[in-house]
């Protein structure tokens, strides 16, 4: 490791103002959103172009330091902050914020990796098109970070996750070479799908610097429905009916404990009396008014009239969504959460959801579990408050249970460092070996995000 002079070399590339060495200034880049994961960076570097990212990676390789790419630092599996003993540079993509014109003919837009989801949404608004992925970290999450984690969010059931929106991308590899597929070609069968490979690579294969993103038509009509139900099986029944409507684009579930916590801490409550085991939030989007069709489906599904709310106007819909969106935030306030984002076959959801709190208490008697998620995708977020950040017995118990029920240990947040130990619960030895062969080929010295995905290096 030849660290001496690294700051000066990087300052020559990005300008001295964008090499951050002061511990107070670095601090925000060294601690993750949950506060469970932290480390110390040698320095933070903030390049403003792909060429500067390439030169930065060259300088870091020459110095023998590792590099942690960071977008909005909203990732929930510890992959965006330094860790361990190896000297690390945090490479912040926050200055890569260029946006191309909205191409309404191709329904695409080019965006720098550091563009936040909210900035992208604002840029596209009014064009008749919209970006398909949405999530509540939109003010800070960047499109580069979302692609790197293959983020999901609330509309996956209709439009797919981030990978499905990426038409092209540009990335700098550990070698310092740039791969660019930004021409926006929807059909281009010329070898390996490098864009697909980098989506979900969590900063371990290359640094994404720009993306060409697919846009979808903005629908004229939106309807949100909130319904209180006895439990998960009833929610799945309603979902089965609602799925018959092509306009269904979100199906979220929340449980009584989490809803009560949001109520206590923010005053936001469902617009009907308590007495439900869970609350289902559905959203429909179409070119025409689908109220009657939705009402018919809900009636057919036996939804209780006295625990049902329907919202059409944007402000009314936002009020229903607020309950769902504030869950993440309030749980983060009551403690440092162990965030277990899992996916299960829908038929396995009721038994898992009914038993998970008890499973958690059997390992950590004083722990509290708050569960919610994107039920349309079989995706539940189990949030455990209580155990120390580095006590991962609860994590092990829940992830093993998910695996035994045929689920995956990560639905949409990724593996990061938080779940690297348990990758084998979801992926076979052959699968992990194939992934590691790709890692070794593209990053032979292990410079990019060590500890992420593969615990302790080679499997
Ligand atoms: C309130 C809240 C709600 C959320 N809701 C959802 C949700 O509904 N669905 C969902 O899927 N996720 C959700 N997330 C987590 C989600 O992973 C992030 O919000 C988002 O995808 C990460 O973007 P980011 O720019 O913050 O990335 P970061 O946190 O900065 O980084 C995440 C990972 O990507 C890597 N990375 C970042 N940028 C790049 C780049 N340019 N090139 C290569 N690697 C890079 C990092 O090294 C790290 O491993 C939520 C998070 C919060 C805080």
What does this structure look like?
The structure is a single chain. Strands 14-11-13-12-16-17-15 form a 7-stranded antiparallel sheet, sandwiched between helices. Strands 1-2-4-3 form a 4-stranded mixed sheet, sandwiched between helices. A hairpin with a 4-residue loop joins β16 (368-374) and β17. Helix content is 34%, strand content 20%. The two termini are 25 Å apart. With 459 residues, it is an alpha+beta fold. It is built from 16 helices and 17 strands. The longest helix has 21 residues, at 314-334. The mean pLDDT is 96. The structure holds flavin-adenine dinucleotide (FAD). The site of flavin-adenine dinucleotide has 38 residues, from β3, α5 and β9.
Q: What coarse outline follows from CA principal-axis ratios?
A: globular
Q: Which ranges are low-confidence, i.e. pLDDT below 50, for 5 or more consecutive residues?
A: none
Strand order of the largest sheet: 14-11-13-12-16-17-15
Report the portion of residues in β strands.
15-25%
DSSP strand count: 17
Number of separate helices? 16
Whole-number average pLDDT? 96
Please bin the fraction of helical residues: 25-40%
């Amino acid at each position: 490791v030849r660290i001496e002079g690294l700051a000066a070399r990087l300052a020559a590339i990005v300008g001295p103002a964008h090499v951050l060495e002061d511990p107070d200034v670095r601090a925000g880049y060294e601690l993750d959103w949950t506060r469970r994961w932290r480390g110390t960076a040698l320095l933070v570097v903030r390049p403003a172009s792909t060429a500067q990212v390439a030169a930065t990676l060259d300088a870091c390789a020459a110095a023998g330091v590792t590099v942690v790419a960071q977008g909005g630092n909203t990732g929930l599996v510890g992959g965006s902050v330094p860790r361990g003993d190896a000297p690390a540079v945090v490479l912040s993509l926050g200055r890569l914020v260029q946006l191309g014109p909205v191409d309404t003919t191709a329904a695409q837009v080019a965006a720098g990796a550091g563009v936040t989801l909210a900035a992208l949404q604002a840029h596209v608004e009014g064009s008749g098109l919209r970006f398909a992925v949405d999530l509540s970290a939109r003010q800070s999450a960047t499109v580069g970070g979302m692609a790197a984690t293959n983020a999901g969010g609330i509309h996956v059931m209709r439009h797919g996750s981030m990978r499905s929106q990426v038409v092209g991308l540009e990335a700098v590899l550990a070698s310092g070479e740039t791969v660019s597929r930004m021409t926006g070609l929807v059909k281009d069968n010329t070898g390996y799908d490098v864009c697909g490979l980098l989506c979900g690579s969590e900063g371990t294969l290359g640094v994404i610097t720009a993306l060409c993103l697919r846009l979808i038509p903005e629908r004229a009509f939106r309807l949100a429905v909130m319904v209180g139900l006895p439990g998960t099986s009833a929610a799945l029944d309603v979902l089965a009916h609602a799925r018959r409507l092509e306009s269904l684009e979100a199906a979220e579930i929340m449980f009584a404990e989490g809803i009560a916590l949001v109520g206590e801490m923010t005053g936001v409550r469902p617009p009907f009396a308590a007495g439900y085991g869970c609350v289902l939030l559905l959203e429909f989007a179409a070119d025409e008014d689908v109220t009657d069709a939705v009402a018919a489906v809900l009636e057919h599904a036996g939804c209780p009239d006295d625990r049902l709310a329907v919202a059409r106007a944007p402000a009314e819909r936002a009020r229903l969504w607020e309950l769902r969106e504030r869950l993440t935030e309030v749980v983060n306030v009551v403690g440092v959460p162990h965030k277990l984002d899992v996916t299960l076959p829908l038929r396995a959801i009721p038994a898992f959801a009914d038993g998970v709190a008890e499973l958690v208490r059997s390992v950590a008697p004083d722990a509290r579990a708050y569960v919610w998620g994107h039920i349309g995708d079989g995706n539940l977020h189990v949030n455990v408050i209580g155990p120390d950040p580095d006590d991962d017995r609860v994590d092990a118990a829940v992830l093993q249970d998910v695996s035994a029920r045929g689920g995956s240990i990560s639905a949409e947040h990724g593996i990061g460092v938080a779940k690297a130990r348990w990758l084998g619960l979801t992926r076979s030895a052959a699968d992990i070996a194939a992934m590691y062969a790709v890692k070794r080929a593209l990053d032979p010295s292990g410079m990019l995000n060590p500890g992420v995905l593969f615990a302790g290096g080679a499997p």
